[in-house]
Amino acid sequence: MRNILLVALFTTTVTIGCSSQAPISNTVTNDETTKLREENDRLRAQLTSAPIAAPPMPIAPPITSDPDALREITKSIDPQITYSHLIKNPDRYKGQPWAFSGRVLQITELEGKTTALIMLDPYGQKNVYVIADFITDFVENNQVYVVGYISGSHSYTSQANYNLTVPLITASAIVKPSERTKLTGAKTKKG
């Protein structure tokens, strides 16, 4: 219906074609054109006035700063789940714990929540989108260690205007890499 509305705005004659009949010509009057314009404006206003919401926070176990609880989370991580697995099918691993080290590419805080794009490799080819229900002292280019839960994927448009989809992690903690050994005592697999 919206296509018809847009077409009617630019022409005063609408031709309707049927497969077994000759085309029927219908002349749109000025009153009808005005009504179509008003309806089109109303629909456009609805589309542009709707707020763009952040993705809802996925359901995940509670956030904790307790090192013992974080240690338990890291112990339950399946080392067979690599970045390659998450790119291939992140929904398959939803709700499972995962941890990684990386460098903050972008980070924002709003209303007590943090969102960050973190790269796992030096070339920015392996990125993870992290959401957290807390704020941090980290800024762009900081090295971090993230402990959290796989929450699916996140799509965004890059500065180069590419549509990208990356794994989404709901963070339970974002710490300095030097604090990682306190939580795990071992290195994580990044594959």
Tags for this model:
2 domains, disordered N terminus, 191 residues, alpha+beta, OB fold (Dihydrolipoamide Acetyltransferase, E2P)
Structure description:
The chain is α+β, with helices and mostly antiparallel strands. It has 2 domains: 48 residues, no CATH class; 117 residues, Beta Barrel (OB fold (Dihydrolipoamide Acetyltransferase, E2P)), CATH 2.40.50. Helices cover 25% and strands 33% of the residues. The protein is built from 5 helices and 7 strands, in the order αββαααβββββα. The strands form 2 sheets. Strands 3-4-5-7-6 form a 5-stranded mixed β-barrel. Strands 1-2 form a two-stranded antiparallel ribbon. β1 and β2 form a beta hairpin. α1 crosses α2. The longest helix is centred in the N-terminal third of the chain and has 20 residues. The protein is elongated and about 75 Å long. The two termini are 48 Å apart.
Number of domains: 2
Name the strands of the widest sheet in spatial order: 3-4-5-7-6
Predict the CATH topology of the largest domain. Answer: OB fold (Dihydrolipoamide Acetyltransferase, E2P)
Distance between the termini: 48 Å
- Quote the beta fraction: 25-35%
Please count the beta strands (DSSP E, at least 2 residues each).
Answer: 7
CATH architecture label of the largest domain = Beta Barrel
Please state the CA-atom Rg, rounded to the nearest Å.
Answer: 25 Å
Global morphology:
elongated
Going by helix content, strand content and strand pairing, the class is alpha+beta
